[in-house]
């Protein structure tokens, strides 16, 4: 894989040190700020840096990892697919479900891989957890809490509008944090029948909220907060026992199974960095042109985007369509 990285924000800066652990043929970096882009490229041994996106699209890279503000995912990905590149898009894959459907159709027409970068689905702990769900009996309640006081929230309270709190840029707690809970739940149980979103709104954006998902025989509650903080806890409760996870869904490395008969077990997986498993799989999927796995993952992305749209519309949060 010849990878082009689009963006120079926090998630990219977290990803760049992992390049030496991935089987990549070449790497290029794109950013709007020439100085910052050049410095990051030099710091991480990246030979090619660009500030012109069209020049990057004309280069020899075959895959783009797009990690830009949410509202830019679709237009940048559309250009990349049209140029014959595979595309890895940071979560949420697009700003709304309509954009996602258009990109999925374009990727199919171009015979290119389109996939969402959500660490959850590739973490060894999450993959192993699936094997233990049946031990819980009939699932009754799922509770997922990802509450993290945002480093940008004080600026928002002071009157600024950082992208993560900008409705026009598809920001908000649901799109930034609760989306992980949604991926966690849908990856395990499929698409819920319906949803209800109760949000704390300030200046037309959800700074925190509770998303209720109605599945066929059980209920799930997803809490996402950027304006307050609490211990992160995920629980799956069945009539025979429960599974508990004391870490955010996108970072989980362990879980405990606690059965009503007194049996308990703790499972731990040593994952050097949460982004490594997903990119190892992305490289394999693209190298092998594994469209079957791609479609399975896109089906999850489609379900997530539909719920995100429904939830935001219920609260009058701007949805670009």
TrEMBL record:
GO molecular function: nucleotide binding
Source species, domain of life: Bacteria
Stored InterPro entries: Gfo/Idh/MocA-like_OxRdtase_N, GFO_IDH_MocA-like_dom, NAD(P)-bd_dom_sf
Domain Gfo/Idh/MocA-like oxidoreductase N-terminal positions: 2-115
Domain GFO/IDH/MocA-like oxidoreductase: residue ranges: 135-243
PANTHER family: PTHR43054, SCYLLO-INOSITOL 2-DEHYDROGENASE (NADP(+)) IOLU (PTHR43054:SF1)
Protein's name in the database: NAD(P)-dependent oxidoreductase
Native organism: Muribacter muris
């Amino acid at each position: 894989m010849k990878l082009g990285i689009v963006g120079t924000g926090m998630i990219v800066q977290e990803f760049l040190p992992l390049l030496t652990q991935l089987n990549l043929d070449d790497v290029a970096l794109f950013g709007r700020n020439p100085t910052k882009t050049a410095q990051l490229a030099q710091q991480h041994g990246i030979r090619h840096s660009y500030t012109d996106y069209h020049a990057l699209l004309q280069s020899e890279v075959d895959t783009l990892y797009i990690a830009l503000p949410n509202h830019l995912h679709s237009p940048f990905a559309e250009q990349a697919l049209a140029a014959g590149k595979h595309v890895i898009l940071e979560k949420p894959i697009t700003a709304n479900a309509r954009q996602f459907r258009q990109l999925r159709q374009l990727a199919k027409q171009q015979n290119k891989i389109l996939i969402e970068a959500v660490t959850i689905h590739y973490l060894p702990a999450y993959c192993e957890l699936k094997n233990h769900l049946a031990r819980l009996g009939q699932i009754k309640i799922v509770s997922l809490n990802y509450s993290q006081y945002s480093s940008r929230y004080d600026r928002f309270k002071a009157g600024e509008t950082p992208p993560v709190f900008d409705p026009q840029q598809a920001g908000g707690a649901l799109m930034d944090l609760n989306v992980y809970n949604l991926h966690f739940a849908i990856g395990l149980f499929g698409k819920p029948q319906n949803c209800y979103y109760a949000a704390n709104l300030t200046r037309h954006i959800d700074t925190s909220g509770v998303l209720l998902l109605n599945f066929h025989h059980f209920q799930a509650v997803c809490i996402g907060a950027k304006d307050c903080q609490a211990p992160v806890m995920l629980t799956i409760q069945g009539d025979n026992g429960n599974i508990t996870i004391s870490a955010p869904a996108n970072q989980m490395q362990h879980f405990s199974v606690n059965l009503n008969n007194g049996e308990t077990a703790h499972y731990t997986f040593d994952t050097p960095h949460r982004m490594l498993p997903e990119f190892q799989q992305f490289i394999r999927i693209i190298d092998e042109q594994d469209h079957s796995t791609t479609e399975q993952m896109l089906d999850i992305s489609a379900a997530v985007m539909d719920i995100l749209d429904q939830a935001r519309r219920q609260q009058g949060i701007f949805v670009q369509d």
